[in-house]
Design goal:
The protein is an alpha/beta fold. The protein has helices at 19-29, 49-56, 74-86, 101-104, 116-128, 152-157, 180-189, 203-212, 223-227, 231-237, 243-264, 267-275, 283-286, 288-296, 300-308; strands at residues 7-10, 34-36, 42-43, 46-47, 65-66, 68-69, 91-96, 133-138, 163-165, 194-197, 218-221. Its cofactor is FMN.
């Protein structure tokens, strides 16, 4: 299957792929097949309000958005699913791969991989929630690449639309390299449709994965979309865009997000704290000097001057 024919999803990335980014990305480049929200969590005994606002935002009107939840026990799972059902959501992704120690150490994210009792309860809930569609995003393990084998039967028994696999152990977070042997093993043993996630930074990367795994259901791209927002459009068109095309569309994307934050937040500090992360993976495109100017900007005036130097 060629990359312009397969499903391409945008991964959930905390602090990046919130509703303003998703909306503007879909508007400027054409929507990905789906966008997954940064994970919803329980805070003070209830679904975090900020997360729910992201899921129910009017900015979701131009793209297919799937909320992702993170949980450590069945009570958190039930609270989150209940809130999403009430909000009208009918598709949910389960985070079983978050690698960050504050979550893993409390049994959330990749920590769920070692909790067979919880997974069995989750499987029962999924079976009961017939009006909802579920998927899973997971890693091979926390510290070893074969931990998934202990739970694969439970995962296979779940009523899932697909399983997304990021082939790094959680201990690596996003360092080191993806382990394609581990992915191949999981791909062969999982009885659900499988989506690949991890280090897709170019059309060639996507093509290599698609060619290596016939029957793959799709590709989920995270940091690759932050570093090259046009990547999915380039995959669909089957060509690499010129630098001029990339920069022109990049500035359009930025303008939409910046306008949103400028009109909804108060004061330079708030706006800058939300918009500066936009450039975190883009130094290769805009140059070190400009990236440094953006990072050091202490006012909207200085920030806009730095952005104006691009292109």
């Amino acid at each position: 299957m060629s990359t312009h024919e397969m499903n391409v999803y945008v991964a959930p990335l905390q602090g990046f792929t919130e509703a303003p980014f998703r909306h503007c990305h879909a508007s400027v480049y054409g929507a990905a097949d789906r966008y997954y929200t940064p994970f919803l969590r329980i805070e003070h005994g209830e679904p975090r309000h900020r997360d729910m606002r992201d899921v129910t935002s009017q900015l979701n009107d131009n793209h297919d958005v799937v909320p992702q939840i993170i949980f450590r026990d069945i009570d958190e799972f039930d609270l989150l699913i209940g809130a999403l059902k009430e909000a009208g959501c009918r598709r949910v992704d389960l985070n079983m791969g978050c690698p960050f120690p504050p979550q893993v150490n409390k049994g959330r994210g990749a920590g769920v991989l070692r909790n067979k009792a919880l997974l069995e309860k989750v499987a029962e809930r999924i079976d009961a929630e017939r009006d909802m569609t579920f998927s899973v995003k997971m890693r091979p393990g926390i510290s070893a690449y074969d931990e998934w084998r202990d739970i694969v039967d439970i995962i296979n028994a779940m009523r899932l639309e697909h399983v997304t696999v990021h082939p790094r152990v959680a201990a690596l977070r996003y360092g080191g390299s993806v382990d394609m042997d581990a992915f191949a093993a999981m791909f062969s043993q999982l009885q659900h449709r499988v989506v690949y996630n991890g280090d897709i930074m170019s059309r060639d990367d996507a093509a290599r994965i698609a060619d290596s795994f016939p029957g793959l259901d799709g590709i989920m791209i995270g940091r690759g979309v932050l570093a090259c927002p046009s990547l999915i459009a380039e995959m669909r068109e089957g060509r690499d865009w010129s630098s001029e095309e990339r920069v022109d569309h990049l500035l359009q994307l930025h303008a939409g997000i910046f306008q949103h934050y400028s009109t909804t937040l108060c004061g330079d500090a708030q706006v800058l704290s939300k918009i500066k992360p936009f450039w975190e993976y883009l130094e290769w495109e805009i140059g070190h000097k400009t990236a440094k100017m953006i990072k050091k900007a202490t006012s909207i005036e200085k920030y806009e001057k730095a952005v104006a130097s691009i292109g």
